[in-house]
Amino acid sequence: MSTIRLGDEAPNFTAKSTEGEINFHEWLGDSWGILFSHPADYTPVCTTELGTVAKYKDEFDKRNVKVVALSVDGLDSHKGWVLDINETQNTTVNFPIIADEDHKVSELYDMIHPNANNKLTVRSVFVVDPDKKVKLIITYPASTGRNFDELLRVIDSLQLTAYHKVATPANWKSGDDCVVSPSIESKDIPDIFPKGYTEIKPYLRMTPQPDSK
């Protein structure tokens, strides 16, 4: 069983999906990616999750994020389930769902937790950057649906902090002030952050979001 940590390269795999065979790294290309698992097809919480993701496609596209789901059931089951998702969630599933009947991908990403269930995946989420590095890992129990607004918020933070020398404080959302990286000396802040900054403590300095208009 693999142990994946932040900063590791996301393991590559080739698998069948509802949109054809996928080589994960090739499919991602230069995009960010979300890989998220579902305990099984035709389950109520998963049905609402996949419907929500389909409705959020424009938000993911704006952030150059590709989304791929996974379930341990087969393609025929997936295809029937997609019809149910479209009907009950009033949407159209617009991303691939991996068929992982042999648990190959689930085991590669440690998505099966025996103390929860020794056959079905927990609700794992992996966010991967364009360099194929794992930037976020969240694991939910099967009984708790994911908050995709929170995933968008985290992706906004990951993308901002990847390109600017800031961190994001508690409950931050896009447009809020950011924390100046501790590695930057106060004397250098005006050149790096022309919008200015506020020093609350020498180690706690806030600046407007660098890329906001």
Structural overview:
It is a single chain. With 213 residues, this protein is of the alpha+beta class. It is 30% helix and 22% strand. It has 7 helices and 11 strands. The strands form 3 sheets. It has a 5-stranded mixed sheet with strand order 5-4-3-6-7. It has a 4-stranded antiparallel sheet with strand order 8-9-11-10, covered by helices on one side. A two-stranded antiparallel ribbon has the order 1-2. Helix 4 links the parallel strand 4 and strand 5 (97-99). Helix 2 (44-55) packs across helix 4. The longest helix is centred in the C-terminal third of the chain and has 16 residues, at 148-163. The N and C termini lie far apart (46 Å). Belongs to the peroxiredoxin family. Prx6 subfamily. Pfam families: 1-cysPrx_C, AhpC-TSA. This is Alkyl hydroperoxide reductase subunit AhpC.
